[in-house]
Amino acid sequence: MKAIRVQQTGGPEVMELAEIPTPQPKPNEALVKVSVAGVNSIDGRFRDGSLRTPLPFTPGQEGAGVVTAVGAQAKTVKVGDRVAWSGALGSYAEYVTATTDSLVLVPATLSDQQAAAAMMQGLTAHYLANDAHKLKAGETALVHAAAGGVGLLLVQMARMIGARVIGTASNQEKASLALEAGADEVIVFTQQDFEAEVKRLTGGKGVDVVYDGVGKATFEKNLNVMRRRGMLVLYGMSSGPVPPVDPAKLSEKGSLYMARTTLAHFTATREELLARTSALFAMIAEGKLKLRIAKTYALAEAAQAHRDMEARKIAGKILLIL
Amino acid sequence: MKAILVKQPGGPEAMELVELPVSQPKANEAVVKLTASGVNFIDVYVREGRYKALPPFVLGQEGAGVVNAVGADVNSVKNGDRVAWTGVMGSYAEYAAVPADRLVPIPEGVTDPQAAAVMLQGMTAHYLSHDTYPLKHGETVLVHAAAGGVGLLLVQMAHNIGARVIATVSTDEKARLARAAGADEVILYTQSDFEAETKRLADGKGVDVVYDSVGKTTFEKGLNVLRPRGMMVLFGGSSGAVPPFDLIALSQKGSLYVTRPTLANYIATREELLARSGAVFTMMAAGKLKLRIEHTYPLAEAQQAHRDLEGRKTTGKLLLIP
Would you call B259 and A265 a contact, using CB atoms and an 8 Å cutoff? Predict the structure, then answer.
């Protein structure tokens, strides 16, 4: 089968289209013919080596497609089912194997593109706003990269909850998208210092929570924009990993809380996964949550997709269409 | 007046008994004639220079006594009132000038020494278990230094809430005290590895929260015993400050929360101060919170008090009597 392979970590150019054997599903797995693969910031982290996985590997953890074979112990899916997943490494390929526990059925109301676009980033936005820090009406949240994949969804969800959303974005066009999605204010951080702006916008008090998938570039300032006993939820590192943190800083800056989260711990059981995907798919089907599919590429163009993603040119979801 | 002065940071010998003039209260202050001052581990950090204070300074940040003089703007207290406070330097002395909005009236039924014993450590135990991580009935908590000043109070509060308490201590005598305070399981960390023991006791699930005042020698292992999405509450560093830690470890170990709270951020307003001290006094009056004051020293023996505290010879509260 055709698959993108990474032989050694590095920039987008290390992703090459190759011909490799189609994998066989283990007893608790299914084999899925991939129709759409989702591209995520985390794919770049595995590709560049900031997150480790044995080499060589096929990147991509998200997609939608059809089950073509199941292992002996498979109970939750059968051949022919239209499924979506998040977390199965190897999705930038014509076929991928995934544990049957991690595959969710895609309802008829959603297309393959919508399902693939929703999984990783939608589930992430959902756990961020509902569990990592359970947002309440009236709270103020700072959402970095508010026009990014997770950002646009998180802004919409925060708005639905009734929170005030301050977003950051790298240009005016993205700021407009974030405002359309429901952000109350968006700071174009390339033009203004977000720390000073957030302090001004909150009358010096600071925000209740910061949702940050950026990492290194924003960390220090994030500590300065929260209210006393506020919460920093770090869920990604698109600008690079945060250097080791001195816990004394957390107390100095107001007895702050910090969490470094990953989706796996918020979809650890099938129960939790299904609860989140039902909520997510329902919001999309009802038109309450709008997915912005910004750009689609062919599998062979995966490297370009990463280049465009990392140049921060894209506002919304990036998909590979097989 | 007699006072314990630190001219430059150092070991217990850095504390000198000196004669100083009694200060006049500023407009917003009252001068209190101390009946008792509380000794806390934080005094050791200040004495050593680990926490900054500008020398020369009078050590100590907790006391109780009788108001002796009030500044021009003070309305909340008058001469003769019995009051207690924490968070203001200068209590290892016969008299202390304290901002009046930091003074808490001592209720009937509570003696001055009891008030001096409970302000810092009692309110610390209270904020930890009621606000930083509000404990719920049925949750499992790990408390280090469970026979220490905060430890014995925190174990009682956690027990009263109905949490299951796993305690760590260094001696059999301390184990006995921790059990009497309500600990369900006690680990002698000098004999067994608390990480392995806690994992075993928590049935492989992990504990919900770790309250850690020990710091350097316990922090990393504490992260390993938390359940996914559990919380590390680091509130002290008796074994040394925790060095900067890698955030990716937090996500790998379960998308954990870390916070490094300090009492000042939990009694920031007078409202909060009165509510919290009131809650602690109420628990004492109801017989739900027992103070253990086994070690009282004359003010002149402050050095010995610190030696005993740092030598881990003591349990419960230490007081200095002027």
Answer: no
pTM score:
0.94
Domain A2-120+272-321: CATH superfamily is Medium-chain alcohol dehydrogenases, catalytic domain (3.90.180.10)
Please give the biggest Cα pair distance in chain B: 61
The domain spans of chain A are 2-120+272-321, 137-260
Q: Which residues of B touch A248 (CB under 8 A)?
A: 241, 260
Q: Which of A51, A259, A264 sits opposite B257 (nearest CB)?
A: A259
The sign of the dihedral angle between the CA atoms of B60, B63, B67, B68 is negative
Domains of chain B: 2-118+268-321 (3.90.180.10), 137-260 (3.40.50.720)
pLDDT in tens, A93-106: 999 999 999 999 99
Determine which of A205, A229, A256 to mutate to test the interface with B (most B C-beta atoms within 10 Å).
A229
Q: How many CB atoms lie within 10 A of CB B204?
A: 8
* Residue B108: CB atoms within 10 Å: 7
Q: Which two tokens stand for residue A200?
A: 């001004």
Closest CA relative to residue B254, chosen from B230, B233, B234: B230
State ipTM: 0.93
Provide the 3-class DSSP secondary structure of residue B273.
helix
Residues of chain A with C-beta less than 8 angstroms from the C-beta of B246: 244
Confirm if A248 and B241 have CB atoms less than 8 A apart: yes
Tell me if the domain spanning A137-260 has CATH number 3.90.700.10: no
> B228 vs A131: CB contact, 8 Å cut-off?
no
A29-87 tens-digit pLDDT: 999 999 999 999 899 999 999 999 999 999 999 999 999 999 999 989 999 999 999 98
Cis amide linkage into residue B243, ω under 30° from 0:
no
How many Cα atoms within 13 Å fall on the side-chain side of residue A218? 32
Q: What is the largest CA-CA distance in chain A?
A: 61
The shortest C-alpha distance from A18 to chain B (Å) reads 31
CB nearest to A251's CB, from B229, B246, B262: B262
At B172, list the tokens: 């059999």
CB B30, CB B103: distance < 8 Å: yes
Residues of chain B with Cβ-Cβ distance to A259 below 8 Å are 250, 255-258
Residues of B in contact with A255 (CB under 8 A): 132, 259-262, 265-266
| DSSP string for residues in A11-39 | SGGGEEEEE-PPP---TTEEEEEEEEEEE
Per DSSP bridges, beta strands A95-99 and A29-39 are: antiparallel
Instruction: Work out the number of other CB atoms within 10 angstroms of the CB of residue B271.
Output: 9
